Amino acid sequence: MRSLQYSVRYIFPLLLMALLAACSVNVHKDKSGEDKKVDIDTPLGGIHVSNDADARDVGIAVYPGATPVQKNDGDDNKSANVNISSGYFRLKVVALEYHSEDAPEKVLAFYKKELKRYGDVLECHTSKHGNASVELSKDDSQDNSKELKCEGDGGKNIELKVGTRDKQHVVSIEPDGKGSKFALVFVQTRGQETI
What we know:
Blueprint: H1 2-21, E1 24-29, E2 35-42, E3 45-50, H2 55-58, E4 67-68, E5 79-86, E6 90-100, H3 104-115, E7 122-126, E8 157-163, E9 167-176, E10 179-189
Antiparallel strand pairs: 1-2, 2-3, 3-5, 4-6, 5-6, 6-10, 7-8, 8-9, 9-10
């Protein structure tokens, strides 16, 4: 037993170093030198992060006349396309943020119609600002249902959800001055044929 403990103590760090040596990291920068895309590949899986997402990646049309919300530095849009995969787990998240001069009610009506092509649309109300709440399936969860639910508190910001916990489209809409700010989000987790 003692020799097994010594073997594990010395073999595990060697295996870890071998895995790290097989790791590949690629960082692509934009013209201002900011990270635009990061790809990390290991023998156990990969992580790919980019801020080059567009509405086709989300599968939801952009509200007519809406403009992308810019990051604080003003160079890039607020968007993300994240893919994490291994033999055991997959997660894809695509998120985009936009602004419209139109009132939230008009944006809401557009997206209720737009999301119907994916199924029944759930309308949730929350007071959270600036983010869409996304539910993921949990293997250890006592709630084995894949059904999406509202977790809002009755506020004036609206989230429209359609799909299941494994594959969902979410639109989060909130007032922004006389107009609206909204986020388009697509999430897909392990168990789907394509990610």
